[in-house]
Structure of Glycosyl transferase:
Amino acid sequence: MWRSLCAVLVALLACLFGLLTFLVDPWITDPPRHHQVDVRTATDYAVTADQTGKLPVLLLMTEAVNAAMVTHALLVADAARPFFQVHLASFGGAYAKLLEESGFAYHVLSPVWTEEQTAAIYAVDQFESFSSPYTKEVLQEQISSSLQLYSKIAPSAVVAFFVLSASISARIARLPLFVDMSMTRETSTDPRAIAVSMPDSGVVAKLGLRTPLSHMASWLMKRLNFITPAFEAVAREWNITGIHLVWDLMEGDYTVISDIPSWAGVDAAALPPQVTYVGPLYGKLKKDIPKEVLQLRERATSEKQPLVWFAMGSSGQPPLVLATLRELLKQQPKWFIVAPVHALLAKLKINASDASAKAEAGLDSPQLYIPPELLPSQKVEPLCDLALTHGGQGTVHTSMCSGVPFVGVGMMPEQDLNIRLAVNKGMAIQAMKFDPPSQIAGLMHDLAHSPEMRIAASKIREECQEYTGEYAFVELIQQKLAGK
Ligand SMILES: *[C@@H]1O[C@H](CO)[C@@H](O)[C@H](O)[C@H]1NC(C)=O
Ligand SMILES: *[C@@H]1O[C@H](CO)[C@@H](O)[C@H](O)[C@H]1NC(C)=O
């Protein structure tokens, strides 16, 4: 009996240890800070920038399965237009159409992500699965396709928006690599930042486990390497060393952070020279405000009711989004709501342009507008009084720069952290994705009755004005290429 128990225990420990070594490298005693990949490729594959054109070529590679990454790439592309011949590239994805229609030279690289792989990218990103879509075969093809493009267009630099294989391909071609990130390795793995992302109302905080758990999570995060073995293997084929942790794939020769140091709680003076904060990069669609929105604004003002911005981004979970929207309509039937969630509802087979489908889904209200297309949120949100959003960085930054207080429901740890930073600034309330929708909608009532949060939000809007985002990004590229 005792022996079999022992055996079970040993097996369990072995399993746990197996999982641990799969997810992280437990043997690193002192995980590197911001690191530089030690490039040791032969010069055989080096690409020399094309000097014949009037302007140098700049290649922006973006992960088009993600709306935020496409948005960032297009913002930088527009800002770079006066100084570079801008080329865009992606491995396809739901948002590739925006790249295609952008008017810039656009290259589809291979292999194009399948729907299954896209779902896997999201699952891995949200820590809901550990089956990586970045297999050795996929990476080899991505790299060979990228190298072909590099030699064809001869860029002066590559800018990667979550294109992880660029960490290898750009190094092979010896092209300077700029990487767009939402936060630094240090912020992402800082125990204080992790503790902050856990809400006060959560079980963890109530049991007093916030500090020990955040230290444990930090230890693990600093050593995270569960998707890297395939990258390491491919890098080895090209004699590139230095790629070992997940962070090594997300940092470039120059890492550009789309945030404001004081918002992230970072001392800008203490940053390594390879890291630069440029300020918020959030979508600025060049469209007019639809008349439906202006009508709701007028009615809300005359009826002295709030106008709500309800936006859940591309990572929002459709059932949660639907349930929360329904609850909000039920609890606050007099409020006015602009909810750009058409695409999310379509995933539930609800056609929000169809009145009867909308009624069937419990969304039948003349106070609610669900636009059929994306809205210029930088113009619409400032017209609103309150917001209910997921914690995507772009969404949170749009609220902060619009001066609109919000309730945030994070879909992943990084989003919880974004929301928490706004909570600490006194302009937001944090909800959790496991909270019942009625409770999430209920928090909107608290928000509507807090003049303090409205005041805090308008102060934050002023801080935002000091940063130029995509323009600072392009200026940095120019400086680094000029060797400054
Ligand atoms: C890697 O290095 C080895 C040994 O120096 C060399 O034979 C090989 O050609 C290199 N591979 C590449 C892709 O540069
Ligand atoms: C949704 O409904 C509208 C209005 O009835 C219709 O014009 C549109 O084609 C429908 N869309 C889809 C995808 O079924």
